[in-house]
């Protein structure tokens, strides 16, 4: 952060694994046949991202951090209907 002195506290994470219900999975399967955006999965990833960010923030607060730098996301499919999202970064304390 330009102009700010800080010390590194450590790594922080926010993790979640989400799944949609069976009805939405069936609808997504039909959409897969004709193509286009599968809104149920877009919603799933948006929800997962938001939960992962909230958990990352809480992890940083629990460590006494003032900010998180170099934050990143990672995601992966566990199965056809489950997604894992990880938010991670470095917790810092301003001097």
Keywords:
Translation Initiation Factor IF3; 3-stranded antiparallel beta sheet; single chain; 95 residues; elongated
Itemize the secondary structure elements and their pairings:
Blueprint: E1 6-19, H1 22-34, H2 39-62, E2 67-79, E3 82-94
Antiparallel strand pairs: 1-3, 2-3
* Architecture per CATH nomenclature, i.e. the level-2 architecture: 2-Layer Sandwich
Number of domains: 1
Class of secondary structure makeup:
alpha+beta
Low-confidence stretches: none
Number of separate strands: 3
Give the termini distance in whole angstroms: 12 Å
Structural shape: elongated
Strand content: 35-45%
Mean pLDDT: 87
String of helices and strands = EHHEE
CATH homolog superfamily? Hypothetical protein apc22750. Chain B
Number of helices, where a helix is a run of at least 4 consecutive DSSP H or I residues: 2
Strand order of the largest sheet: 1-3-2
CATH fold name: Translation Initiation Factor IF3
Helix content: 25-40%
Radius of gyration: 17 Å
Query: Mind summarizing the main beta sheet?
Result: 3 strands, antiparallel
Q: What is the CATH class? A: Alpha Beta
What does this structure look like?
The chain has 95 residues and is α+β, with helices and mostly antiparallel strands. The protein has one domain (6-94): Translation Initiation Factor IF3 (2-Layer Sandwich). The protein is 39% helix and 42% strand. The protein has helices at 22-34, 39-62; strands spanning 6-19, 67-79, 82-94. Strands 1-3-2 form a three-stranded antiparallel sheet. Strand 2 and strand 3 form a beta hairpin. The two termini are 12 Å apart.
């Amino acid at each position: 952060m330009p102009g700010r002195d800080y010390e590194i506290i450590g790594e922080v994470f926010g993790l979640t694994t989400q799944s949609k219900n069976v009805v939405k999975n069936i609808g997504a399967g039909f959409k897969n046949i004709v193509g286009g955006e599968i809104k149920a999965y877009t919603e799933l990833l948006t929800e997962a991202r938001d939960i992962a960010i909230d958990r990352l923030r809480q992890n940083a607060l629990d460590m006494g951090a003032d900010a998180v730098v170099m934050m990143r996301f990672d995601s992966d499919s566990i199965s056809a209907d489950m997604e894992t999202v990880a938010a991670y970064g470095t917790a810092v304390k301003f001097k």
